[in-house]
Structures are given as C-alpha cells and as structure tokens.
C-alpha cells in the first residue's frame, strides 16, 4: 500500500548549520508533496510544497528537492535556528483528483545554540 | 484572516459520554478535513468535505463517529459513545486547491482525553 516514511526519527544540529531532512515515498503516481513543521502543542504549519513536474523549489531559508527516480524527497533548512526545532512531516498526494494527503511519521529536529 | 479555528482546545470526558468537536475553516476555503493524531498512528485522515459534501470518510469509525458540515463556515465531529482509545489530538484543516498548490492549513487542534 501507499506509505511515506522517514529515514531519521531525530536530527540534532548546531545553530547555524544547514539541516537536511529526508523522506521516502512509495507511490510513483504521487503528483504533489508538501512539508509541514509542527511545534509542540500546535497544529502542523505549512513550510513548502512541490509538484511532480518540478525537482526543486526554494523558499525563505528552505529548499525542497524531489527525486522521482528513487522516490525521495528532502527538506533543506539553511542556517538552522533554535526556532526551527520541531517535528517535520512530509506528505504526498497519491490520489489524482482528490485532496487526500498521506503523512509520514515525522522527524524531530533539535537545534542546539 | 484568523486561520482555522477549533473548539474546545482541551476536552476531558468519561467513557461513554458524547463529545462534539467544532471547526471553523478559513473563509473561502471549500475543502475541510478532520484528522486524528496519536503517537502510535501519527496523523490519520478521518473525513473530508468539499463544498459541505462528504468526499471520503473511509478513515472514520462510523459506528461511533459522525461528521457534519451544515454550512460553509462550520463543521462538527461527534463521538458517541466515546472510548479511551479515542484519546488523541484532533485537527481540522481547510484548503482552497489550485493549479499550483493543494496546501491544507491546520487549526491548533483539540486534545481529547477519554477516561
């Protein structure tokens, strides 16, 4: 069945470092991917998204890379700050024409000052 | 815009009681989603609406859960009777899909504890 999984459950970095959070997806039909950030006690917050006709998209300090060949998605955070500490989820939409997202299990990012 | 609004933020109830969770989507959004988040299962989609009509409720235990959207600015998720295994954080999200994005915007969640 469809699933979205993460390689690393916890990532610890130093403030100022670049962070890379990885995600593997299993459904080659997925045409939309999205990254969310969830801080403790809050709902998931949109970070960045990408459609399958792109392989890279940049936002403010964040970049999402999509490799459809190996079904891999990554989130790069430049100059990581303590405020970036949170759980990050990737999600995919494998259902063409429907608005259903399949979420990964999440990666916890810990940023040390 | 105030974002997605959910109430209550916290709910503690006893097994067997009825629980009603409420959601107000972002104005103009025509999709509304109810999710449940637990440590074991992660984020699970329970049900979603498009223009107030249920599009998919395959993730919702229909023997005890029911979801309604009587108008474009209000939805409820009801659990009757509640059970301890229903303890979780319930999120509501809304979206206005377009050519470039299917982003769903989440509310702050309702933490439900069933004793």
Topology overview:
The complex is a heterodimer of chains A (113) and B (115).
Chain A: E1 4-5, E2 10-14, E3 19-25, E4 32-38, E5 45-51, E6 56-58, E7 62-67, E8 72-77, E9 86-93, E10 102-103, E11 107-112
Parallel strand pairs in A: 2-11
Antiparallel strand pairs in A: 1-3, 3-8, 4-5, 4-9, 6-7, 7-8, 9-10, 9-11
Chain B: E1 5-7, E2 10-13, E3 19-24, E4 31-38, E5 42-50, E6 53-56, E7 65-71, E8 74-79, E9 88-95, E10 105-106, E11 110-114
Parallel strand pairs in B: 2-11
Antiparallel strand pairs in B: 1-3, 3-8, 4-5, 4-9, 5-6, 7-8, 9-10, 9-11
Give a description of the structure.
The complex is a heterodimer of chains A (113) and B (115). Chain A starts with a strand and ends with a strand. Chain A is globular and about 45 Å long. Chain A has a single domain (4-112), classed as Immunoglobulin-like, CATH 2.60.40. Chain A has strands spanning 4-5, 10-14, 19-25, 32-38, 45-51, 56-58, 62-67, 72-77, 86-93, 102-103, 107-112. In chain A, strands 2, 4, 5, 9, 10 and 11 form a six-stranded mixed β-sheet that branches. A five-stranded antiparallel β-sheet of chain A has the order 1-3-8-7-6, with no helix packed on it. Chain A is built from no helices and eleven strands. The relative contact order of chain B is 0.33. In chain B, the strands form two sheets. In chain B, strands 2, 4, 5, 6, 9, 10 and 11 form a seven-stranded mixed β-sheet that branches. In chain B, strands 1-3-8-7 form a four-stranded antiparallel β-sheet, with no helix packed on it. In chain B, a hairpin with a 3-residue loop joins strand 4 (31-38) and strand 5. The model of chain B has no long low-confidence stretch (mean pLDDT 93). The radius of gyration of chain B is 14 Å and the shape is globular. Chain B is built from no helices and eleven strands. Chain B is 0% helix and 54% strand. Chain B has 115 residues and is an all-beta fold.
